[in-house]
Design brief:
The chain is of the alpha+beta class. The chain is built from 28 helices and 32 strands. Bound molecules: ligand BES and zinc ion (ZN). Zinc ion (ZN) binds next to helix 3.
Length: 883
């Protein structure tokens, strides 16, 4: 068989679509160029002869012309790294078709055809963890976004929906469990091999295909849906991990129930499988009926998982489950619409978690992520709108903007419509587009119709990047409070000029004597400048604005410190209370960092902050979870965002000094708080969780002001802990101190949990993220540790993401931190490009950093750019970061 190849094939197997040399700047794909695929693929049959070294795939595609596309005389099937063994169309072997780059282009006459493709793939050599790969002796797949083309030739795009039948055959001893999407419809034996046939009745895009084969055991349970369907639920793990699956299973059942109640969405198969895999690029994946998870988001017990881990498991399980409707039943037309499924599903998982625990605390946590990750993205070289116009490598667009800002944009629609009308909007969306590959525009139109909202101008949120700034000016006329609100959206790459967008702001006007307000109002600022007048307000009120963080914007206002102190103590909106604390501290720190305050001013401001924290510690109306939020200082990345050009050294120093000052000023109150919460016995209820949160937070203040006392308390907390939250919290504090207790605890922790990969990841991450002045040296040593490997993404992230997120170490003035991250990228890129590319953005912040460090960061980006062998993923991020 001789299939022609353009460009000319290199030596060797002419069918091997090995990577052509990559141009430095990969080709741009544009949203405006979308065309429907000329062919439909109503049915796909996949037969796998499974082997870790080699797996043979026989794919049979039924194809027919797409009536809603321009007719074509050929079909283009995507491939990536495949060895083509045989090709037949309608039973006739084909030899005269072409391989163009990575794609297989087959000439086809109009009408229905059957295409049969035989390919060989090599799972054990798949270090990218995309397509079919081996992990701990098992085989599993990851196809989103473009991994299916690494399994067989196929129109690997989300708007080609097909019904899949999958036959898996392999040695019974090696792969006792064979799973794919949908339901198992037949099994059989032949000799040492066995096989299973699975059928998924729901048409789906190739990115939702999944297969798992290995030696796994399941926790099994059942769920009865609202219409009475009995669903079998399995959580599959390796044998020793079964005891740590209870929380995942309970989370799954809660998610299924919640989606029925909150969104009217019911599960649609008789079986739902979750599989935990220890080598996984992402957190988890929503494959139809067969979700594949990073072990990190499945396994949890009190001994090895923190409260944060428990919450993360619940949230990720919910997220992937919710995709069954927002993503699977209705999928994306193209990858520019990614936020259609991800932004919406993030909103859904956030609302779920709000309902499962403390809603205000969850809201604050989500805002903290948005501000700490998405705001910097939006103000840097990688800024893009939630529906981008172009990309080069889609893996790079699974960003905080698509996810977190995407969720905020939909949340604003919900705020404007109110819960009930929003629900009518989502009902309209789900009914109208069920079974389709839809667009963000169609989503907005459905909400518009169902919720009866005018969203014409609101659509700008989908196309404009950048975080809007809202400036507030307040005045008083007789008995009217007047607000002038101005908005501006900053320029971002490729978008120099912006238009005003509708910004829904919840606000309340407080009487400063009574501490009450006359009711919350919602105003929508939709012009560049607008005046709002509130009658019947006797004296100038204290303004509480953007309550609940109703819009993802930055508020700029001059507000007297005493008003912030007032709001921090009395606002009845918990988010606004948190916000007032943040504003108080941020104002102080920014002045400290830029060196503009006189001594009196400084003393006064510090006293106000200490007074506010004191009230937070003492206020009996607060629960400890909320108390913890109010005690937390703004992150260094958030502080850096408040300045045109940031000096990470000064930010770090000022923030540490404030911690020390507060620790000193409030020494006895903090000590009392510690003793109180240390006495709360362990349980998983929110009061006890709150106690643990306050416990470790108090230690972080004491560590800055009285290291000896902190070391003593932390060591006692560490060794006496009966749960991972307390133990990890104490170890975190100790890791930042230069004491004997530090060494002892680190050795103990390692020996206690050696062999438990997820806990050893914590051991790496705590050291890499620590406040210890020698953190860089520790990271260098850990990179040489026998437990460190570049082949496991969790381990790589534990060491190096924690390091890149440790401002003091990463931004060392010598540039050593930057060099270490660049070296990591170069070493990791050939093995796992997707993971390597995720380390570029921290270096991309150079434009907003003081000139000395900026030059060093840029230098490392240039060194990366000079590498002749960069992957598409990393090349794109490096080029964009250099700008
Ligand atoms: N669909 C994604 C998984 C994914 C991400 C596949 C990127 C391919 C590329 C999944 O639904 C997801 O969003 N997972 C998140 C966790 C979630 C809770 C936000 C993840 O993996 O980080
Ligand atoms: Zn998702």
């Amino acid at each position: 068989m001789d299939i022609a190849r353009t460009p000319a094939a290199p030596d060797g197997n002419p069918y091997l679509a090995d990577a052509a040399p990559q141009p430095q700047q990969p080709a741009e794909i544009r949203r405006a160029d979308y065309r429907p695929f000329p062919w439909l693929v109503p049915a796909t049959r996949l037969e796998f002869a499974l082997g870790i070294e080699t797996t043979r795939v026989i794919a049979t595609l039924e194809v027919e012309p797409n009536p809603s596309a321009d007719p074509a005389r050929s079909i283009r099937l995507n491939g990536d790294g495949l060895t083509l063994v045989d090709l037949a169309v309608d039973g006739q072997q084909r030899t005269d078709d072409t391989i163009e780059g990575n794609d297989l282009v087959i000439a086809l006459s109009p009408g229905r055809h059957e295409i049969r493709i035989v390919t060989d793939i090599m799972p054990a050599r798949n270090s990218q963890l995309m397509g079919l790969y081996a992990s701990n002796g098992m085989l599993c797949t990851q196809c989103e976004a473009e991994g299916f083309r690494r399994i067989t030739f196929f129109p690997d795009r989300p708007d080609v929906l097909s019904t899949y039948t999958v036959v898996m055959r392999g040695p019974r001893g090696q792969f006792p469990i064979l799973l794919s999407n949908g339901n198992e419809i037949a099994t059989g034996e032949d000799g040492d091999n066995h096989w299973a046939e699975w059928h998924d009745p729901w048409p789906k895009p190739s990115y939702l295909f999944a297969l798992v084969a290995g030696n796994l055991v399941a926790r099994t349970d059942r769920f009865t849906t609202m219409s009475g369907r009995e669903v079998t639920l399995n959580v599959w793990v390796r044998e020793g991990d079964l005891a740590r699956t209870e929380h995942a299973m309970e989370s799954l059942k809660r998610s299924m129930k919640w989606d029925e109640e909150a969104f009217g969405r019911e599960y649609d198969l008789d079986l739902f499988n979750i599989v935990a895999v220890s080598d996984f690029n992402m957190g988890a994946m929503e494959n139809k009926g067969l979700n594949v998870f990073n072990t990190k988001y499945v396994l949890a017990d009190v001994e090895t998982a923190t409260d944060g881990d428990f919450d993360a498991v619940e949230g990720v399980i919910a997220h992937e489950y919710f995709h069954n409707w927002s993503g699977n039943r209705i999928t994306c037309r193209d990858w520019f619409q990614l936020s259609l499924k991800e932004g919406f599903t993030v909103l859904r998982d956030q609302l779920f978690s709000q309902d499962m625990g403390s809603a205000p605390v969850k809201r604050i946590e989500d805002v903290r992520i948005l501000r700490g990750v998405q705001f910097p993205e939006d103000s840097g070289p990688l800024a893009h709108s939630i529906r981008p116009d172009s990309y080069r490598e889609i893996s790079n667009f699974y960003t905080s903007t698509i996810y977190n800002k995407g969720a905020e944009v939909i949340r604003m629609m919900r705020t404007m419509a109110g819960e009930e009308r929003f629900r009518r909007g989502t009902d309209t969306y789900f009914t109208r587009h069920d079974g389709e590959a839809a667009t963000c525009e169609e989503f907005v139109a459905a909400i518009e119709d169902g919720a009866d909202l005018d969203l014409r101008q609101f659509r700008l949120w989908y196309s404009q990047a950048g975080t809007p700034r809202v400036t507030v000016t307040q005045s008083h006329e007789g008995t009217a409070a007047c607000l002038t609100l101005r908005q501006s959206v900053p320029a971002t790459p490729g978008q120099p000029d912006k238009q005003p967008m509708p910004i829904p702001l919840r606000l309340a006007l407080f009487d400063r004597d009574t501490g009450a307000h006359a009711g919350e109002q919602l105003v929508v600022l939709d012009r560049a400048e607008q005046d709002f007048r509130f009658e019947g307000v006797e004296k100038p009120p204290v303004l509480s604005i953007n309550r609940g963080f109703s819009a993802p914007v930055t508020i700029q206002r001059t507000i007297p410190r005493e008003d912030l102190v007032f709001l921090a103590a009395t606002d009845d909106d918990p988010f606004a209370r948190f916000e007032a604390m943040q504003e108080l501290v941020t104002g102080y720190l920014v002045t400290e960092i830029t060196g503009n305050a006189g001594d009196d001013e400084r003393e006064g401001a510090l006293a106000d902050i200490a007074g506010a924290v004191d009230k937070v510690l003492a206020d009996p109306a607060l629960d400890d979870l909320m108390r913890g939020e109010l005690m937390m200082l703004p992150s260094q990345s958030y502080l850096a965002e408040q300045m045109e050009v940031a000096d990470p050294g000064r930010i770090h120093a000022a923030r540490e000094l404030l911690k020390a000052d507060l620790g000193g000023l409030l020494a006895s109150q903090l000590r009392n708080a510690y003793d109180r919460v240390a006495g709360v016995p362990f349980s998983l209820d929110s009061a006890a969780k709150g106690a643990r949160k306050v416990k470790t937070l108090v230690l972080t203040y004491l560590a800055a002001s009285d290291a000896e006392l902190a070391a003593e308390l932390a060591a006692r907390q560490y060794h006496g802990a009966d749960n991972m939250t307390d133990r990890q919290g104490a170890l975190m504090v100790l890791t930042g101190l230069d004491t004997a207790e530090r060494t002892a605890a680190l050795i103990d922790f390692y020996n206690r949990y050696r062999g438990n990969a997820l806990v050893i990841d914590k051991w790496f991450a705590l050291q890499a993220g620590s406040l210890h002045p020698q953190a860089i040296e520790h990271v260098k040593a850990l990179a040489e540790h026998s437990d460190f490997t570049l082949d496991n993404p969790n381990r790589v992230r534990a060491l190096y993401m924690a390091f890149a997120g440790n401002p003091q170490a990463f931004h060392a003035a010598s540039g050593e931190g930057y060099r270490m991250i660049a070296d990591l990228i170069l070493a990791l890129d050939p093995r796992n490009a997707q993971t390597a590319a995720r380390f570029v953005p921290p270096l991309g912040r150079w434009r907003r950093i003081e000139p000395g460090r900026a030059g060093l960061m840029r230098g490392e980006l240039e060194r990366l750019a000079a590498s002749p062998v960069l992957s598409r993923d990393t090349a794109e991020q490096v080029m964009r970061s250099l700008g």
